[in-house]
Amino acid sequence: MTTLLLASALLTGLLGLSAAAPAPPAPAPFHAFCKTQWFFVTPCTDISSTIVEQIQAFSPKPGCDVCRYKLVSVSPQSVTANHTSAVAAQSEDLLFAFSPLMSGGCRVAVRI
């Protein structure tokens, strides 16, 4: 349950970071991006599974405004997803890269 809460916080924090970035005047020749990393005491397999479950829970559904995530790929080293905004249908790719730590924990590098 704690891992699920952490994954939800990760996704919410990342979207909050990208949403807080000022929008360039239209048309923009580039798209803003964000990079961050977290360190967990939980093994990477648990973190990865929880992130995948959360993305699947937020897959597009009728009547769900926050359900705009699409799982693109999953491997032992990474999870790739896509998020489409409700406004202007802007698309963002998310990459979660997992690196096991010697302590048994996990480093998660995220790029939006």
Automatic annotation (TrEMBL):
Protein name per UniProt: Uncharacterized protein
Residues in the signal sequence: 1-20
Superkingdom: Eukaryota
Keywords: Signal
